[in-house]
Amino acid sequence: MKQANSIAELRAAVGEWRLAGCSVALVPTMGNLHVGHLQLLEAARHCADKAVVSSFVNPTQFGPNDDFDAYPRTPEADCEKLRQGGADLLFTPSGKEIYPPEPSLAAYVEVPGLSDDLCGRFRPGHFRGVATIVCKLLNLVQPRIALFGEKDYQQLTIIRRMVDELNLPVEIRGVATVREPSGLAMSSRNAYLSPEETLQAAGLYRHLLEARERLAAGERRLAELEADFVDKLASAGFKPDYFAVRRLADLAQPNPDERELIILAAAWLGKARLIDNLKVRLSR
Ligand code: PAF
Predict the structure, then answer these.
(1) C-alpha–C-alpha distance, residues 228 and 232, integer Å
(2) Shortest-distance atom of ligand 1 to CA 56
(3) pLDDT tens for residues 77-91?
(4) Annotated catalytic, 37?
(5) Which of 26, 123, 276, 281 is the most exposed place for a label (fewest CB within 10 A)?
């Protein structure tokens, strides 16, 4: 596995592959890799000749009170996992390499509307930071395909829209959420949970499953259902940010006859902000 710390090294390596006629897949990450990331790498290796993984804890997607400094960083372990997982190149740029010097970053990429909804309501500016770094990474690597976990479904939807509206020549592929045996969605932020909270955290997924059953059983008063599950999460010890039923295609409020839905939830448990979602296909 090659490792590039600079944009010049990255471009040299990827440029050589392109000249040799190889297709490239990109898996953007913030490091602290778990099985979910390795599934993205596995999928990347199946759909292109070369798999590039980027590892960069992107400061612009963290708010002033977010966990940028505390975000788990495990570079040596990540490197070993990627080597074993068959990555061809690991891109680990510094902040200086990616962003111009303080005080200002003048050019941002923004996907208005959806970026201010759901998680965006609670993390202002977060999706602007995500769209900006993902756009930069796509420009730097110029992959044929880029892969993202479906756990961050709003992020995935925003990236798809950005790529579509900016006509970026890349396919965006979502990869199914990987779960612990308890049902808890794998996430780097699960590291913030105590052993007891880790057991409790699986309750978030159980609530999503229960909501899906109620939708499948014909319940259609979505506002009531959402409010009910916010209360249930609070009673189960979470501090919920939201519990929402949306149209799968674009995360808009669903029409009454919508069949392809997704339930999304975000809730705090101790120091961890957990997010998860579950798709729902209604037959009637
Ligand atoms: O999902 C993540 O890990 C990050 O938001 C991403 C896509 C790597 C951008 O920093």
Answers:
(1) 6
(2) 10
(3) 999 999 999 999 999
(4) yes
(5) 281
> 29: CA distance to ligand 1 center in Å?
5
Segment 4-17 mean pLDDT: 98
Task: Kindly report the protein residue whose alpha carbon is nearest to atom 9 of ligand 1.
Answer: 130
Ligand 1 atom index nearest CA of 152? 1
For a pocket test of ligand 1, which of 52, 109, 133, 140 has the largest count of ligand atoms closer than 8 A to its C-beta?
Answer: 133
Does pLDDT of 123 surpass 60? yes
272 forms bridges with which residues in the sheet? 269
Nearest-angstrom CA–CA distance, 230 and 267: 9
Point out the catalytic residue in the list 37, 46, 126, 207. 37
pLDDT digits (tens, 9 = 90+) for 236-281: 999 999 999 999 999 999 999 999 999 999 999 999 999 999 999 9
Cα separation of 127 and 221, whole Å? Answer: 29
Which sign does the torsion angle of CA 98, 102, 107, 110 carry? positive
Q: DSSP letters of the chain?
A: -EEE-SHHHHHHHHHHHHHTT--EEEEEE-S---HHHHHHHHHHHHHSSEEEEEE---GGGS-TTSSTTTS---HHHHHHHHHHHT-SEEE---HHHHSPSTT--------TTGGGSTHHHHSTTHHHHHHHHHHHHHHHH--SEEEEETTSHHHHHHHHHHHHHTT-S-EEEEEPPPB-TTSPBP-GGGGGS-HHHHHHHTHHHHHHHHHHHHHHTT---HHHHHHHHHHHHHHTT-EEEEEEEEETTT-PPPPTT--EEEEEEEEEETTEEEEEEEEEE---
Residue 259 Cα to ligand 1 middle (Å):
29
Indicate whether this model's pTM tops 0.70.
yes
